[in-house]
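task queued by scheduler; priority normal; single chain, no ligands, no partner chains; default sampling; output format set to structure tokens
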Amino acid sequence: MMRRMNRNLSPALAILAATLSLLTTAPGEEAPKIGRSKDGVIVSTEQLIRPAGVVVEFNGRPVDLVVAPDGKSVYVKDNRGLVVIDQPTWTVRQQIPVGGGSMHGIAVSGDGRGIYLTTAGETLWEGKVAADARVSEGRKIRLPGPDGKGSSYPCGVTLTPDSAHAVVCLSINNTLAVVDLSAGKVEKEIPVGVAPYHAVLSPDAKTAYVSNWGGRRAGAGDKTGLSAKTKTVIDARGIGASGTVSIVDMVAQREIAQIETGLHPTDLCLSRDSRTLFVANANSDTVSVIDVGARRVIETIPVRPDPSLPFGSAPNSLALSEDGGRLYVANGGNNAVAVVDRRGRRDAKSALAGFVPAGWYPGAVAVRDGQLYVANVKGVGSLAKIARKEPGHYVKDYLGTVSKVALPTPAQLAAYTKQALADARVHEALAAWEKAQAPEKPAPAPQHDGEPSVFDHVVYIIKENRTYDQVLGDMPRGNGDPSLCIFGKSITPNHHALAEEFVLLDNYYCNSVLSADGHAWATEANAGDYFEKAFGGFTRVYFQGDPLTASSSGFLWDAVLLHGLSFRNYGEKDFPKTVPDSSWLEMYDDWTSGKKSLRMIHSNSLPALEPYSAPYPGWNLKIPDVVRADIFLKELAAFEKAGNWPRFMIVYLPSDHTSGTIPGTPTPRAMLADNDLALGRIVEGISKSAFWPTTCIFAIEDDPQAGFDHVDGHRSFCLVASPYTKRGQTIHAFYNQTSVLHTMERMMGLSPMTQFDSMAPVMTDCFTDKPDLRPYAAKANQIPLDELNGKVAELSDSAARWAKASAKQNFEEPDRVDDDTMNRILWFSVKGETAYPKEFAGAHGKGLPALHLKLDRKVDSDD
């Protein structure tokens, strides 16, 4: 039974009162049915996807859409380019790649003959519409970066009423570009705020309103951080702290005012009478309502399903009904479109009327002829059947969707709301905030806010890119496929021993796809609007700590510090260099010989972390993980001598990413062995310290990008070691990255950060109330850590080919590689000429029955 809620439910949630019992999985029930079923699709956040209306699916991540003037076509921008949907038949008519779309920006001319979308680089792409509605490529109009160099990362594009000019938001330039479409060139750039996102024009085109995603320009006395080389206003945590809308006089071609809004102002919508401007604030979960004449915000509309919920709704797109009475808001995090009642309310308070179910992360909405159109960025997950030489899927086989639904009547909206709140796990998220109602005995993983834990210290180890089968697929007592295990027990004896001696989780999933969103999910319990929409090209930033990409709710360490707990960072957000610059072997020899003459210069991309960071190297694959382990263990010994140790620690061990088969670098299996030995030594050191009785260790992968799994492309592994962890058991319960965060929060007495860790199940199945203080003994490596890839001239033809392919990859940041090539490199490095597992090149759901999960056999799945 659920405990009584210590709050009054909102009117929207009151609709759920009769069905709460249906939303909770009782003990002994089957685990969530990941993938497709007759009920819909459950994705890696454990949310159910059941969009209202009719849905069209295609291979991509749609981020923006516009309806043709005649209403017969819907033009969609995705991570690859343009998708044309035939509106009457609701089928895909065309797909045109343009080299990667930016996170926002598509427009159609008034006569319907021209389509314009912005790319992730520096161009405005033009499409020409023929009489038969077919689209052909026109021009690529260059929109260069600052000082005419590099990328401008153009986003929102709006055409003047005569379609003679386009106004384009140049995100990196911090300008609004006026483009002469006849001449095909930029006529003028008008400085606005930081990272302009979208612009709308007044009917006479004399005024432009521009949402500045990064807010106002920094001034004297502001605390600042760099975002795409621009000084950006930040708060004490290092997170962007400003959002504004610029008012631009298009006749004088200059900005005349800025209005403060919520954070990450994205889409804009101007009322028909041009007196009211609506602004979606993706990082504040609100919509700002601006009186254009008074130039001030007259209302801020919260759009979370319940005001008690934490951050996570991510409103990022807007559309007004044709009578102006209702505002439709794409709530990315809730997989729903919020419906705001505006009838007769220009100066009065708006009312949140309900929600319409959408796909996974709705990112654009439009209203036309009584229909609501929704572009769903993540659609139904990574279920696409990509046409390539080898059949099969993997975690990046995106299947986006666009849904079309008739604008609902009040009765329909009530039913839609009930479904949307249930599918988005709103009840589960609210339940996480229930307080303990009586003193509780300390538990390993407390179930309620305010209950004590047996743990005083939490160690959180983050690694890089592996799936379950790739490492643990050879473990007999888990649901693994040995044929897909390329880094098995002989290479990773400590991973195997930890899973064998403690718990083996064979139904654990990453919320993430790659390192960009992986480290966000792993430390913020959320991936912000940029990380969800920038898959066409992470031009502004990929992995490093840009202040504009962080969630407003902050990082886990912010919550720790806010509660007065101690924290130590070992490598997260750090990008060190060795002085002098050295190879991996030079660093390894210098360290193991005891000389230690090579210095490491640290560069934390999030300066707010620096006071809490150890002299410990983060991302640099030329530095072995055993070096990192030595540094950690040296500090552990010092803390033990002093008799104190931080409450929370993050430890980064990136070497399992590998650097492929570049000649002179460690072989992939040697890098896995290095990573494995470092992990084993760290766990052993902690388990033999005075802190072990009250310490819990979690080790996870940031994402499952670089490998195969027979159950699901998102499936990875999580290792849990502590005196209270069960011994020698296999756990089949569904958990994910946000489950780990929720569990650690419970252990440290913290409330969840976002809606996603709130709704994630706490990992109680992993623990017992009776401690077992036996320490862990690290297993020696069986692969020489200095086993190096050979020179090209000494290799077979196949090996030489993969060595050359490895040398072309970018290892300056995690995951900046060609994934399919990297997967083949890793497979060949261990398996040689053994046939590549083409049928497992992604997600398919073949292993779900062993987990008592169900899947529609007509459809492949990894979500």
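post-processing summary
- Residues 668-687 form the longest helix (20 residues).
- The chain is about 15% helix and 30% strand.
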